[in-house]
Hints:
By secondary structure, the chain is mostly helical. It has a domain at 32-83. It has four helices and two strands; from the N terminus they run H-E-E-H-H-H. It has a two-stranded antiparallel sheet. A hairpin with a 4-residue loop joins strand 1 (22-24) and strand 2 (29-30). The radius of gyration is 15 Å and the shape is globular. The relative contact order is 0.13.
Amino acid sequence: MSPIKPIVKLMESKPADSVDEVMCHCTGTRRDKIQRLFEQGMDIEAISDWTGALTGCGGCEWDIGDFLKELAAQRENGATSNK
C-alpha cells in the first residue's frame, strides 16, 4: 500500500469547516484560533500580525477573508435578533 493513501484518507475524514482545520498552511494557523481572535475584536490585519497568517504564499487569503465575513455576518445577525 502506498504511504500516500492513509494521508489522503485522513484528510478526507474531517469536514472542511472543522474547528481544527488549518487555514494557513505556511504558519499552521487553525480555524479556531482565527475565530477566537476575531471574537476578541481583532480585524484581519491584527489577526495576520498576531498569527503570521496571510504573510506567506497568499493561498489562504480568500479562505480566511471569507471566514471572517461569515463570522461578522453571524455577529450582526445575533445582534439584530437580540433587539
